[in-house]
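Dear support,

I submitted the protein below through the web form. The confirmation email said the job was done, but the results page showed an empty box. After a refresh the structure appeared. I'm attaching both so you can tell me whether what I see now is the final result or a partial one.
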Amino acid sequence: MNTSEILTFIRVTGEFFNEEPEHKTVGDFYIKYADESKNKDEKTLRAELKYFITDIGEMFSETYGELLKFDEYFLSKGSISVSQFLMLYRGSMKKILKRGKIRNEDEAIAVNGLLSNVDDSTVSSEDRKKLEELLQTFEQKLA
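What the results page shows now:
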């Protein structure tokens, strides 16, 4: 992810939270952070982004069954999806690659979303190829 993609994701997260009155304070914080961080370099922004990972993961994992709905919302706003974000920044992709296997449907959805919406600057062509193979193997087992 580049600086623009990171800030877009954080801003869309804020907009998403602002749709629920009980999360408005969190939403406002995310939007303000995104607006005030436009001039930060990518290295600084990536380091600061790690603080958001736990919050984002907890908020969205509470309703993980609705992940596709969240993903559609984020993609419609020009951001990467929540599943892509969590996979990239929690190391799920690396774990799946190391394990050599997609274990469940949630991982398959995340891998598919990642492959569909992230370019080669985010996922190397070697990792992309391996993830495609793992996804195909998982899907064949379901058939």
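Response: this is the final, complete result; the empty box was a page-load delay. The chain has eight helices and no strands.
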